[in-house]
Structures are given as C-alpha cells and as structure tokens.
Amino acid sequence: MKTRMILLACLSALCGFVYAGQPARPASDNYVKGVEALNDGDPVTAYKYLNAEITEHPDNGYAHCYMALICNCCGDTKLALQALQSSLELIPADDSEYLSFARYSRGVLLTELKQWEAAQQDLDEAIRLSPSDAENYKARAQLYLETGKYEESLGDLKKTLELDRKADVNDLVLQLMAVAPSADFMDRVTAAFQLIDRAEAR
C-alpha cells in the first residue's frame, strides 16, 4: 500500500509532461483521455482509455508507464513490472524525464520486493537521468535504510531536502532515528529534521 501511494503521489507532476515541449510526446485521443482521468483520480476510466491506446498503439511507451501505475494501484505487481519494462524499451532515449520516472517506479517496486541490487541499479539510473528530482533521492534513501546503509541513507535524505525543503520525509527521518548507531548520527538526523521544521514554519 505504501508503494502504491508513493507512485500515485507522483502522478500530477508526471501527467503534466504530456503537454510539455520537447521531446514530442503522444497526443492520441485515448492516451490524452487516459492521462486526464489519472489527473482526476479516476484509475478505472484511465485504465479503459490507456488499454485502448496500448491495443491501438502498442509502441506507446508512455501509455505503458501509466498503465504500470494503475496495475500497481490494483495490487498486480507482476503486471506493473512488465508494463515498466515495456515503457523502458519504448520511451525515446532522449526523454530523460519519463525514463527517469520509469526507473524510479521500478526501483520503488523492487525495493518493496526486497530485490535490493536491481532496485539500486534502477534508482541510481533514475538519479543519473534526473539529478534534480528529490523523489529519486528519497526512494534511494529508503532503500539504503532497509539495507542497513545508514550513512548513505542520511546522505540521500539531506540531498532530498536540499532539492525540496518541503519533501515528505518525516517517516524516513523517524526510521533513521530508530536505528541510529551512534549519538553523533542521531544528532545529524536531528539536524536534518530541523530543516523540515524550518521549511514548514515558512
């Protein structure tokens, strides 16, 4: 459930890309209606349109990317991973934003499945493709936390907040505090938490 919420929380920003400039992205009727339905919080209608889009245009990697989110929301991780693989094969190589999001999405799912090495490869690549996206660092910080790499997790937490002072990292901070291996580490996590407090006070 946590992963589904993480991925769906990114939909608003990503859906906006369909109307952005270069590189050119799909504008077919079923695709646009499917994206609009996702923006409106209606995954059932979105599924209908995106399924029709994939049937008519199976090479639309963007539609596969959105379909992966719907599959994951419905609890079908296997289909979600298959759809993300298709999206990575079909999205144009020059569209780093969407490729980064597809890598991020798969990295988050693989983290939940405890496939640590593959998850880190995807999240590393998501960061390489889109180094200014705070969500990528937040996802990798969670992966590092779950694999006992607490210093690396704290480093990515700090980077997340550097990029977005209002990023929702409260759970991550509390989890790091719970496993703090030393007083010094706890102090550094607390300092990061204070960054959140200052951002919320503005």
Q: What is shown here, in short?
A:
By secondary structure, the protein is an all-alpha fold. It has helices at residues 2-9, 11-15, 29-39, 43-56, 61-73, 77-90, 96-112, 116-129, 134-146, 150-163, 170-178, 183-201.
Provide an overview of this structure:
This protein is mainly alpha-helical and 202 residues long. It folds into 2 domains: 1-131, Serine Threonine Protein Phosphatase 5, Tetratricopeptide repeat, CATH 1.25.40; 135-202. It is built from 12 helices and no strands. It has helices spanning 2-9, 11-15, 29-39, 43-56, 61-73, 77-90, 96-112, 116-129, 134-146, 150-163, 170-178, 183-201. Helix 6 packs antiparallel against helix 7. The protein is elongated. The protein starts with a helix and ends with a helix. Mean pLDDT is 88; it is low at 1-6 and 15-21. Keywords: Repeat, Signal, TPR repeat. Residues 1-20 form the signal peptide.
Describe the structure using short key phrases:
75% helix, 202 residues, Serine Threonine Protein Phosphatase 5, Tetratricopeptide repeat, 12 helices
Topology:
Elements: H1 2-9, H2 11-15, H3 29-39, H4 43-56, H5 61-73, H6 77-90, H7 96-112, H8 116-129, H9 134-146, H10 150-163, H11 170-178, H12 183-201
* Total number of strands: 0
CATH topology heading of the largest domain = Serine Threonine Protein Phosphatase 5, Tetratricopeptide repeat
| Tally of domains | 2
State the helical fraction: over 70%
Low-confidence stretches: 1-6, 15-21
